[in-house]
Write a structure and sequence with these properties.
Distance between the termini: 24 Å
Number of strands: 0
Oligomer: single chain
Number of domains: 1
């Protein structure tokens, strides 16, 4: 019998890499946006604006679209067609 801490870790992490990766990406982007939003205006550069634009347009949108969008729905349909969870 496994120790209860190992069982808890397996429940949290095994097979859930995509969810934890999405949480990491969105929380990191949110932290950066928070820091940039409250920085003094004279310290911001064009490079910072480029990073914020990239994060909003690519990183966050891609994660949200995958988790809630068509890629997840397509994956669910593929599992249903193949006979359920494997």
């Amino acid at each position: 019998m496994k120790h209860w801490t190992i069982q808890c870790l397996e429940i949290l992490f095994v097979g859930k890499f995509r969810i934890w990766f999405a949480i990491y990406i969105t929380s990191g982007a949110g932290w950066y946006l928070y820091k940039v939003s409250f920085a003094p205006p004279d310290t911001l550069s064009k490079f910072t604006e480029t990073i914020v634009g990239f994060m909003l347009g690519t990183a966050i949108a891609t994660v949200i679209n995958f988790v809630f969008g068509t890629s997840q729905s397509s994956q669910d349909k593929t599992k249903l067609i193949n006979g359920g969870e494997k």
